[in-house]
Design a protein that fits this description.
Elements (H helix, E strand, L loop, with lengths): L7 E4 L3 H12 L4 E4 L3 H14 L6 E4 L2 H6 L6 E4 L5 H10 L8 E4 L5 H12 L4 E8 L1 H7 L2 E5 L2 H14 L2 E2 L2 E2 L1 E5 L3 H29 L5 H12 L6 H11 L22 H12 L4 H13 L2 H7 L14 H34 L5 H7 L10 H10 L13 H24 L4 H13 L6 H12 L3 E2 L6 E2 L7 H4 L2
Parallel strand pairs: 1-2, 1-4, 2-3, 4-5, 5-6, 7-10
Antiparallel strand pairs: 6-7, 8-9, 11-12
Length: 484
Amino acid sequence: MKHASCDIGIIGLGTMGANLALNIAEQGFSVAGFDTDNDKLRLLNGQAERELSGSYQLSTASDLGDFISLLKPPRTVLLLVPVGAPVDAVIDQLRPHLEPDDIIIDSGNSHFTDTERRAKKLARSRIRLLGMGISGGSEGARHGPSMMVGGPQASWEHVSKLLRAASAKVDGSPCVAWLGRGSAGHYVKMVHNGIEYGIMQLIAETYDAMKRLLHLSHEQMHEIFQRWADGAMGGYLLEITAAIMLEQDALSSGYLLDKIRDAARQKGTGMWTSREAMESQVPTPVIDAAVSMRALSDYDQQRRQVSEILNQPERHIELETAPFVHALGEALHAAMIMTYAQGMQLLYIGSRRHKFQLVMGDVARIWRGGCIIRARLLEDLRQIYDDPNYVTLDNPMFHPSLAKHLRTAQTELREVVETCAKQGVPAPGFMSALSYYDAFRSASLPANLIQAQRDFFGAHTFERIDRDGRFHIDWLNSEQAQHG
């Protein structure tokens, strides 16, 4: 490869970085790869020889200076390294080698506030930073992910042709977009992951109900999940759930799922979503429940001990399989809609709060393909937000089409929640979705009592429904208290 001829350089050639390098090279762009692990360099070169047909331009380097010399100006360096301190360390190593107008693309799951901090620091050297969330896992990186880009628009325009070519496509539309200034891309990816937490929790609760209440076989559950994946609520997470049901254990016998420890790990992005929602005062109860249940699942030893102490309901309800499976499907679909709605409302409010100026239709569009939460519902959301009458709709749950679906499916959602509660099967995702629905449809809530309580013990004041302003009374010495 000629000196300084590469369109882009990738630092970090683990599974994601290597697959993205192969993807970009396959699109006809020249790629340089850097990693301090020589085994990863050899692995990538071997993959390129096996998987890329015809001529391709891919070079690797284990010396940072040599790597930088392969890039044509203005140089574009894409990072796929672990989040947090490693990103800062790599940027610090890169800075002496870069020049004004060079571009760094941070493609990890960085917290959006870290992206803002790094962008300001790099701007002093006139180095531009794009924060880009990538979704789709290793397969998506290889064959087309969804990519959420934020940062200077001019930098996006410089790399947009390459990223569009490497992205997933739905009806010919690339699943990548510039979403706004600063850390908009990483903010959207954070909320994407929060939605992912919620949907995974709901599917897990559905599986649990099938297993514990209906005692269905793996083959039966596979058939049900596959039918749903092929239907109106179909999406990637349902597809892989159907496949998981049939996976055999290669190390012993039986199904692999039955051998996997019931403790789910988390890397923090769901928790970031819940924290941001609370700071923005946006309700995201399904996502919050999913984050809490991942934490609770890790207490598996205590759960086993407590199961011997705390009893379960004594009465067992005999359920008819077909009707309850139907109810589960309707409940899952409704709860999924509300989970997406919670995430989209957070994006809408967060965009105004952080001045991202997100175009909600673009978010829905690029999530339709490549990403983990891709589902048929996202095409509905794209159409809703592309409608001029609803472009400023903060919560898509209020759109007539989705509201109609929820009004119909609430019966099955209530049935699932009631059955799980009576039988002692935890279903916090479903329960949170139902409470979210009921709270939003309630013209009045008991928050008036909370206002009164806060004013009683802390003189925080309260608002009235019959006049403007804020009010406070001396509750202990009021006429009502004296006569109470």
